[in-house]
Amino acid sequence: MTTENPVPVAKRVPADRTHHGDTVVDEYAWLAAKDDPDTIAYLTAENAYTQARTAHLEGLRADLFEETRRRTQETDLSVPTRKDGHWYYTRTVEGQQYGVQCRREVRDGETTPPVSADGAPLDGEEVLLDGNRLAEGHDFFSLGAFDVSPDGRWLAYSTDFSGDERFTLRIKDLSTGEVLPDEIPDTFYGTAWSSDASTLFYVTVDDAWRPNRVWRHTVGTPSSEDVVVHQEDDERFWVGVELTRSERFVVIDIHSKITSEVRVIPAANPTGEPAIIAPRRQGVEYAVEHHGHRFLILHNDGAEDFALAYTSADAPGDWTPLIPHTPGTRLEAVDAFENHLVVSLRSNGLTGLRVLPVGGGDSFDIDFPEPLYSVGLDANPEYRTSEVRLGYTSLVTPDSVYDYDLVTRQLVLRRRKPVRPGPDGRAYDPADYEQHRDWALADDGTRVPISLVCRTGTPRDGSAPAVIYGYGSYEASMDPWFSIARLSLLDRGVIFAVAHIRGGGELGRRWYDEGKLLAKKNTFTDFVACARHLVKAGWTASDRLVARGASAGGLLMGAVANLAPDAFAGIVAQVPFVDALTSILDPSLPLTVTEWEEWGNPLDDPEVYAYMKSYTPYENVTAVDYPAILAVTSLNDTRVLYHEPAKWIARLRAVAPQGDYLLKTEMGAGHGGPSGRYDAWREEAFINAWILDRLGLA
């Protein structure tokens, strides 16, 4: 530590907050003032301190970045996807941060995707958008919408240059390359075209960042003339819009955490009034997919893990069962093609795909050989097809693209993401690594799955270092995924484990329900149980184990730091939701009201207030020996505001000053961190270098 970079000390400005007769004094509430020079000065001082404290890792960070770069095929081309008369694909170019969106006409007799040697442009390529050109002059760039009209003429696309996820929507004429004067600011994700491409539907948000309006825009007119098609006034709900694969209907999805309503507009009549498929009923969720004369309905009405039904597309009414509810098999989505339906599901903690032939024939599941894997449908824009595109990966298998023939049941590997030789010059070999499924026993006797990957032959005597990752919220499942950057940890002897804790969706809807609202603490105790199990089973030792999580997983990190500080040698909390109670008490903040069905409403319910106060990390910092903590956030994050980790680190320093706490704030990014791929690799190298340092491997 140098005198130039002393430990930052945040000033204390007492601010009272009283709810349900309980008064809390928050001395760091002032950090929520983003425009206050003192706030920026404090974040800048924390960045300088973090830079100084990690200066000794600069060489290691450079090595880790270079290892990721060397293992990645930088000039690359995705497997082209067919839509009508074109193949669509994305290219990356060595040295460039962002992808290039392209298409090429389908040639006579061409039935399989064209390939490119070493990622070179395809002959006859048409560049639709070049992210690198769009990003020129900006430190941050993100592409929101990318939607080609049904006739292939127009491209609707939107851009964000700050990370706050407020996009400017534009329309490009692909026949001339001209960008039209049509410019719509402050839009959200989601667009849909009318059948004749004269009309574009899009979404905007309210002051609390809730997507609440669907608009109709006529191509070639000013946005001031746009019409609101649907406005959602219930603050628990948000809206989305999309065009069905059949291109017959524009779907307006209206959803809260536990309730749905879907409205449809015939794509051939874009000025028509939206028709309701089924009125919202509290606690009933459903999703709609169009298929011929019917709408397919995936729903949980009397079906905890969801069932599939259908209703008339001409006069939606009663639902006719198609796939009954099967407890333990969670139906997650249905995709309709002219002669087949493909249902995405999960069972026994693994994802799966089930095919239903239309008009006869038994349903069947697509099988995969690995014990742990993730599989799902990839881009499949064609409705009239007998072949579907799948994405597949595992902890040891790089991202893979398959085409599956729904009639012959043949699975054809189109491409596996290349992994180039590492620093030792050796080619990547999955046999050099092994993956395992283990189970921890939670405090209440529940068995909690853990997925692990390590170098083949890693000892099971407690000597190996390890990282344990977790999330556990919103029914989001942390299914096995491959990471090139992770190889740098594995090759240094680190075990990587994923704790599939309650609050996620790995074992169905019950798994989610048992980790939310007044059962939220199960998420935290499950994670601690997984950490303890890794030690008990000889995978690692507590002083050789680092925990990592992001967003709601960052809340998890803060909670387990308070719950079991002795269980970890270090904790990485990225964009962490660590001041959850303060945020959920303020309905003016982004997302708060829509979150009440996930966490509870502490504003009106004293039981929820007391329960959240008992676990929210910022409220429960005490004078204990915390493990080393690295918190990473972004100034323009609109999902988890930067001041949550800033306040948390300030309180940790004040209450438990003997600890080692670092705060790193990206001053020009959002929830996902740096936008360019090289910048993202550097960020990952920074975090992994800190982890290796905590594990004694720096």
Automatic annotation (TrEMBL):
Peptidase S9 prolyl oligopeptidase catalytic domain span: 481-696
Pfam families listed in its UniProt record: Peptidase_S9, Peptidase_S9_N
Domain Peptidase S9A N-terminal: 8-413
InterPro entries for the chain: AB_hydrolase_fold (IPR029058), Pept_S9A_N (IPR023302), Peptidase_S9_cat (IPR001375), Peptidase_S9A (IPR002470), Serine_Peptidase_S9A (IPR051543)
Keyword annotations: Hydrolase, Protease, Serine protease
Record has Isomerase as a keyword: no
Superkingdom classification of source: Bacteria
Family under the similarity heading: Belongs to the peptidase S9A family.
PANTHER family with a match to the protein in the record: PROLYL ENDOPEPTIDASE-LIKE, PROTEASE FAMILY S9A OLIGOPEPTIDASE
Protein name: S9 family peptidase
Species this chain originates from: Micromonospora fulviviridis
